[in-house]
Amino acid sequence: MTQAEKERVPIEKGFFTIPRDPSEPPSLLGTRCRSCSEVFFPRRKVCAKCLSQDTEDTLLGPRGTLYTYTYVHVPMFGTSRTDAQGYGVGQVDLPEGPRVQAVLSGGAEDFRIGMELELQLETLRENRKGQDVVIFRFRPLAAA
Fold it and tell me: For residue 5, is pLDDT > 80?
């Protein structure tokens, strides 16, 4: 396996996909209730709307709309990042229904409510096995 093909693993399993091809977009892992059609992120075994246990896993994203956000002007806790630029945290409305809270990728001036965002994976650190530990973030959709 070359450096470019280094294995990527999630910081915590069960929240997002990691495509084998890095050019493919990731997806969030959600749940759809078969009884009432409500969609949730993260996944649930019991529907919070109708209490049905008849749920199925579903892929969400990779795009959404920024509902609201804030910008934290200190480095992200638990990272080895040395930049003191800070990071954004926002609530993102997904077309499938749920509103998710996520870290945002970009500077404080890069965001505005109502803008389109896309899901991306970012390497947080390397683990003891030499794998890249990744998190998901949303970034402003590149202008066409």
Answer: no
